[in-house]
Amino acid sequence: MRVARYVHDGEVAFGIVEVAAADGPTNGAGDETLTVAEIAGHPFGPIGFTGVRHALGAVKLLAPVLPSKVVAIGKNYAEHASEMGGDVPEQPLIFLKPSTAVTGHGDPIAYPPSSQRVDYEGELAVVIGRLCRDVPEERAMETVLGYTCANDVTARDQQKSDGQWSRAKGYDSFCPLGPWIQTEVDIDDLRVTTEVNGEVKQDGRTSQIVHKVPKLIAYVTSCMTLLPGDVILTGTPAGVGPVQVGDEVSVEIEGIGRLSNRVVRR
Ligand code: MG
Known about the structure:
The chain is mainly beta and 266 residues long.
């Protein structure tokens, strides 16, 4: 199931993205092969449909969840840790991105004037489906609603100069998520690519993740309660690099989707 959050005619709703029937609604823009079936309420429980359906091209996708927090993992792919001049830490290295950094597919990434070096970081994002604390690793996957693509946008110069990462990782729009949540995908070995203006910059696989998702959930929830809609970013593969104003950055994960955002001047 692909769970999207979107706005149509000023109304925000969750819906399930489906391949349209041949006689389904169209918007004339060529996007009519996918539709979104509106669900009643939210996706964190039994799902009921309202019967309303739109062509995907007729809605504006939003970030698929509004997390209370985004917990991110640093240096969780060996080659990326090495390009940053270190090793993968023995225990997961966690930091927070504020909920206000979250933005959706197609929304701009705002390049702040205070930074001279803003980088993309394509990542697999885990969306938590229920309130949980002190989750044992063996039961961690029970807490997962699904997965989406993320870009852990980073003001690299400030990450280095500040010594801790809240500002560098926390600017508004520095956490694109989307385009939707895929609830049925095996994440053991998925290709993760990041493109800038169509050129592949990162090309990794989730099999290269060192601290795996169940361990991350156990580790994070041994510290803090996770709420439905909270997000864990699992770290980025090698190949991080800068973006410039005007660039289009796309993070694509096999079996999940493609998240694209343009960089604009803040
Ligand atoms: Mg990252």
